[in-house]
Amino acid sequence: MAPPDAPADPSSRWLAQALFVAALALPLAVLGWGGVAGRAVLWPDGAMPSLLVQAACAGLAVVPVLCISASLLFARRCFLAFACGAHFLHGTARHLRACAGAMFAAGVAGTVVPPLIGLLASGGHRLALGLDSSQVLLLLFAAIVWKVAAVLARASDLADDLAQIV
User: Fold this and answer.
1) Axis crossing angle, helix 51-83 with helix 90-121, rounded to the nearest 10
2) pTM to 2 decimals?
């Protein structure tokens, strides 16, 4: 709960709403791309595999973006707390830590999922491994957000101690 004299922050509320829209739109965009262009990319010769393999590839393709969406939803909860003036609460730090964890999972999934999809799409004949700078940056950013969450949790502890003194 925010202190009664905590200032409201309308920009945080706007950002929270933008994060909500992005969290919903990203998986829909990936699914839409997969339905339109994904088949042409995975099976350029037009030889479509079984429906089970297609479904497995589609399911794998949405894993990284679902992790990003979860991360955005946790970040949204932080910004909603900020909008109410609740900056130094344990729950805010917990949501930020969950945001970092989901972001880290997205980085790992973004590294592991494409080779798995390639392996499935080729019928088990082709495995291509690669590490893109976007995955490395996502993993590093997740670590930074995790550390900021730890600092926010410590600030929350200090705010609780200060409230007991006053």
Assistant:
1) 160
2) 0.79
